[in-house]
From TrEMBL:
This is Putative Flp pilus-assembly TadG-like N-terminal domain-containing protein. Residues 221-250 have a biased composition (Gly residues). It comes from Catellatospora citrea. Residues 215-268 are annotated as: Disordered. The chain crosses the membrane at residues 15-38. It comes from the Bacteria. Residues 17-62 form the Putative Flp pilus-assembly TadG-like N-terminal domain. Keywords: Membrane, Transmembrane, Transmembrane helix.
């Protein structure tokens, strides 16, 4: 009999559960919970799709606009309103989304007017004043052409909810970097090295004539025969434009000091925050300190090896004035250049010499004994970077990141 009593109790429990479910259904509680889970979940998925589409479209447009030296990318930038929807659609779960507008501060883009609807539909924060940027806003659009995401269950509830139109916004900026390798070149070297235009950026392989040889510990006294192509010898430095006696020596402020190497003729080393990074730190007033270069950090050794092996451009600070001597020396920043390092000669510590990866020429034929040399070419390209945008003129190095 105990068994029969137990079965009877279970039947009564099931009956009670059925009664509760009936009450909840009649009161709309279960439908409300279902609507909350399913329909709100669909809103979150739609919002994520729209945000991913806005991110992809904004980055694609920014990349087109930032690469001004590429005619094809320039045309894409000017036609951004026509190309952005493709990136937005590719990130939509149903393959369709709307692009409300594409705008920005680049002269080739329409200006931005007004905001979104609020409630997470606006781009986050304010854009930095020293960056050019593009903004893409996406919105709900279904394959049927409707701009309203209909509910699955909520329409059965009191109140007549009929759906929502969602929006998302992404902003991507580009501009000059605010830091670079702990290596610096003189402005006149950059001017001479880019006199014939920038070398094409990787993966393109430029002509050998684009390669320059930058030297330090070079007297720069104008007694050599500079040939104007970055390969002057004797006292000619590199990039000198003269021929015969008195030509070719680098002009101030790139004149090397008699003490040798502290403030260089063509390039020099800069102070780093610590020995674990190879990074130039530029102060708020636009100066950065000198490292005499007798003991280059292991981080900088590895940075140069990595740059040469990758063949990718790196950000190099360009100075327009050098003052002081030794550890008290200062450079004044002009801007940041994109430079592809192809080799070097007679550098201190474990670097020694590395032949040119562009021309195959031996370092010993490019860099005389007693000189320190860097080989490479200037280009106009995006460079690796993580930090804030700089306020200096663009000398070829451009950085890009999402800013809202």
């Amino acid at each position: 009999m105990p068994f029969l009593k137990s079965r009877a109790g279970a039947d009564r429990d099931r009956g009670a559960a059925a009664t509760i479910v009936t009450i909840l259904l009649a009161g709309g509680v279960l439908l409300g919970m279902t609507a909350l889970v399913v329909d709100v979940g669909r809103l979150y998925v739609e919002r994520e799709d729209l945000q991913s589409g806005a991110d992809a479209a904004a980055m694609a447009v920014a990349l087109d606009c930032a690469k001004r030296n590429d005619p094809d990318r320039d045309r894409e930038c000017r036609a951004a309103a026509g190309t952005a929807p493709g990136y937005a659609n590719n990130n939509a779960g149903d393959g369709t989304s709307g692009v409300r507008h594409v705008c920005g501060t680049d002269a080739r883009l329409p200006g931005c007017a007004g905001g979104g609807q609020g409630n997470l539909t606006d781009c986050l924060g304010q854009p930095p004043a020293n960056a050019t940027w593009v903004e893409v806003r996406t919105s709900t659009r279904l394959p049927s052409g409707s701009f309203i995401l209909p509910p699955s269950f909520a329409q059965t509830l009191a109140g007549g909810y009929s759906g929502s139109t969602l929006e998302a916004c992404a902003r991507v900026g580009w501009g000059s970097p605010s830091s670079g390798l702990a290596l610096t070149f003189c402005l006149s070297e950059w001017t001479d090295g880019t006199a014939g235009g920038y070398a094409p950026a990787p993966p393109a392989v430029p002509a050998a004539s684009f390669e320059v040889v930058l030297k330090t510990k070079d007297p720069g006294n104008g007694n050599g025969n500079g040939n104007g192509n970055g390969n002057g010898n004797g006292g000619g430095g590199n990039g000198g434009g003269g021929n015969g006696n008195g030509g070719g020596g680098p002009a101030d402020p790139c004149q090397a000091r008699p003490s040798g190497g502290d403030l260089p003729g063509g390039f020099g080393w800069t102070d780093t925050p610590n020995r674990n990074v190879c990074l130039t730190v530029v102060t708020a007033v636009g100066t950065y300190g000198v490292d005499p270069g007798a003991n280059v950090s292991h981080a900088c050794e590895q940075a140069l090896r990595d740059a040469r092996a990758s063949g990718q451009p790196v950000s190099i600070p360009i100075y327009n004035q050098a003052t002081g001597t030794g550890n008290n020396g200062l450079y004044r920043i002009e801007g940041f250049a994109a430079f592809v390092i192809t080799g070097w000669g007679n550098l201190p510590n474990g670097l020694h010499s590395a032949d040119s990866t562009l021309t195959g020429r031996a370092a010993s034929t490019l860099c005389d004994h007693g000189e320190d040399c860097i080989f490479g070419y200037f280009t106009n390209a995006l460079v690796p970077w993580d930090g804030e945008f700089g306020s200096t003129p663009n000398l070829g190095a451009t950085v890009i990141k999402t800013i809202g």
